Amino acid sequence: MQLNGEMVCWIKYYRGKLELNSDVHDHNTRHKTDLHPLTCRTNLTKNNGLNMGITLFNKNARTAKETGN
Which of 27, 47, 56, 65 has the fewest CB atoms within 10 Å around its CB? Predict the structure, then answer.
């Protein structure tokens, strides 16, 4: 649990250096404000700390938006 929290905090700190979905897609998408996960060819890189942090951050951000926080 603490590791997940640390990954989310790290992503929050560095999110200005990461791409948003709106930077990648020319059209409007539902998740345009989410961070864009890195392109990976293997499960090893898919499950690395950076991608896991991006996924957790995006899920956290959606939950916060839904609850109105």
Answer: 27
